[in-house]
UniProtKB/TrEMBL annotation:
It comes from Rhodovulum bhavnagarense. This is Amino acid/amide ABC transporter ATP-binding protein 2 (HAAT family). PANTHER family: ABC TRANSPORTER ATP-BINDING PROTEIN, HIGH-AFFINITY BRANCHED-CHAIN AMINO ACID TRANSPORT ATP-BINDING PROTEIN LIVF. GO terms for molecular function: ATP binding; ATP hydrolysis activity; branched-chain amino acid transmembrane transporter activity. The keyword rRNA-binding does not apply.
């Protein structure tokens, strides 16, 4: 079943156009990699999906609902679980308070989140602001899971983290895919890691969908052409 369809999406920052026609579809249970060089529109696409930025043309359908005109909190309630770029957690609150504040009914609760990220259990009473960058990222993912999303959206979740912590985050993403079948939209710079977890890929070039297909078909040629690696 198709969970998400974005068709012909355009978007602007003031008078400056950032998206010129983004198309993507995501099936239930699928891990989709959204790729492209810096500034090609990945974060802006995610912002239109989560309603942090309105789109101008095109249509977004999520789980049978048209998203046009919905405010972000209503879109979140439909099951869009965003882990934003730059991992925003509530610094003065404890780990536990951060998780509880995000909670919505469903299978994901404190016990399940701390089983996925044992460090969060160990640091349950600690102020979020005093966690390491990697632990804050785990907390940001934990918060999104506590909302019991239909779609988990990870925008550069491993950015700026030490290799060992990065590996822990990727391991968690693999577990989410293999053990829970959660639908995931993932933006990340590591083609190698994406190749191991994503089912399909969408490549953006200058605010447009330039290529879409199975992750296995993202060849070195394609990567050279669109990703500059
Ligand atoms: P990155 O990997 O650098 O985050 P990206 O693919 O996510 O890149 P976007 O951040 O979506 O790209 O940026 C798409 C375009 O929109 C770029 O040309 C960027 O300069 C522009 N842009 C992004 N944010 C803003 C903003 N707040 N105001 C004006 N222009 C913006």
């Amino acid at each position: 079943m198709t969970l998400l369809t974005m068709e012909g999406i355009t978007a602007f920052y003031g008078h400056s156009q950032a998206l010129f026609g983004v198309d993507l579809t995501l099936a239930e249970g699928e891990v989709l990699a959204l790729m492209g060089r810096n500034g090609m529109g990945k974060t802006t696409t995610i912002r239109t999906l989560t309603r942090l930025l309105p789109h101008r043309d095109g249509a977004i359908r999520f789980d049978g609902h048209a998203l046009a005109g919905l405010p972000p909190h209503r879109a979140a309630r439909l099951g869009l679980g965003l882990v934003p770029e730059g991992r925003r957690v509530f610094a003065p609150l404890s780990v536990e308070e951060n998780l509880i504040a995000a909670a919505r009914p469903g299978p994901w609760d404190m016990a399940r989140v701390t089983a996925l990220f044992p460090r969060l259990g160990e640091r349950r009473a600690q102020r979020a602001g005093s966690l390491s960058g990697g632990e804050q990222q785990m907390l940001a993912i934990g918060r999104a899971l506590m909302t019991n999303p239909r779609l988990l959206i990870l925008d550069e979740a491993t950015e700026g983290l030490a290799p060992l912590i990065r590996a822990e985050i990727w391991a968690a993403i693999h577990r989410l895919k293999d053990e829970t079948g959660l639908s995931i939209l993932v933006v990340d710079k590591s083609l190698k890691e994406l190749a191991q977890v994503a089912d399909r890929a969408v490549i953006l070039e200058k605010g447009r969908t330039a290529w879409a297909g199975p992750m296995a078909d993202v060849t070195q040629d394609l990567a050279d052409r669109y990703l500059g690696v």
